[in-house]
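Project standup — Tuesday

K.O.: blocked on the structure for the chain from last sprint. Re-posting the sequence here as requested.
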Amino acid sequence: MAAPLSRRDGVGPAGGAERPAGGAERPAAHVFVEDLERPELDEQDRRHLERVLRLRSGEAVSGSDGAGGRRMLRWVGNGRLVAAGDLEWWPRPVPAIAVAFALVKGDRPEWAVQKLTEIGVDRIVPMLSERAVVRWDPVKADKALERLRAVARGAAMQSRRVWMAEVDDVRSFGDMSVEWIHTTHSVPDACALALHTAAGVVVHS
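H.V.: unblocked you, prediction finished:
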């Protein structure tokens, strides 16, 4: 299996996204499947390829298992894909990038998850803050998280990632410590705040 380099080694594209080699056939779509040896589409993805993209039999589709595996597939109609290329392995991008954001009203959390996924963020952490208006009860939180994870999956397909972005459960800041850190900036002696939380380190500059 081929092993393209990570984009954070300065070689590969953002998020481990697929790019065709020079002269290679460009896939008409990118999908996630559980098994790249026997690719099967879920109902929503099948309808998208059939009714929205209207793929024709024989068109190329790139597929990933969301965990670094990638393979060129071919659409053969009737909701079916078959393997059409060698199985490749893309290493997890290094260093892993996590971004936390405070929940707000409306569709802004979905927009944030979509854009963070598209630019290659590995882990997305929705946070409850003391002054946030949004308060999710357990039932609403489950449904909202399901929606956010669906948005991340769709954005990963759109940007042709091979590693799925993870959307964490909603967290609160809880106990945390804060320290000043030096940063690289056009301003001399620039600093930022590093917030050490249970969900990870949040940098505010």
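K.O.: great, moving the ticket to review. The first strand starts at residue 30 and ends at 32. Confidence is low (pLDDT under 50) at residues 1-14.
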